[in-house]
Amino acid sequence: MPAPALSAPGSRTGLSSDDWQFRQNAITERLLTALEDVVWRYRALAPNGLPPGLVAEAVTAEVAHHLLVARDALRRLPIPD
């Protein structure tokens, strides 16, 4: 699926409410998939004896990154007419 076109935050385009909802759902789905990937990746690393503090710090940083990306995409989503 192609990435939605970016626009200035809060701008209005000819976007229908259904298109807006579809794009919002796509952003949410990408976030949830990325977070699931983080969980699986770090569960796989757990038996390797890495210090728990290091793993927690890495997970926190990665989750924060994915939230930032999703928040930015939602802010750039044009307001439906």
Which tags fit this structure?
81 residues; mainly alpha; 2 helices
Question: Any overview of this molecule?
Answer:
It is a single chain. The protein is an all-alpha fold and 81 residues long. The protein has a domain at 52-81. 67% of the residues lie in helices and 0% in strands. The chain has 2 helices and no strands. The chain has helices spanning 17-45, 52-76. Helix 1 packs antiparallel against helix 2. It is elongated, with a radius of gyration of 17 Å. The mean pLDDT is 84.
Q: Provide the gyration radius in Å.
A: 17 Å
Strand content: under 5%
Note the total helix count. Answer: 2
Report on the biggest sheet.
none
First and last CA, distance: 23 Å
The tally of strands reads 0
Overall pLDDT, averaged?
84
Secondary-structure content class:
mainly alpha
Which ranges are low-confidence, i.e. pLDDT below 50, for 5 or more consecutive residues?
Answer: none
Secondary structure: elements and pairs:
Elements (H helix, E strand, L loop, with lengths): L16 H29 L6 H25 L5
In brief, what are we looking at here?
This protein has 81 residues and is mainly α. Helices cover 67% and strands 0% of the residues.
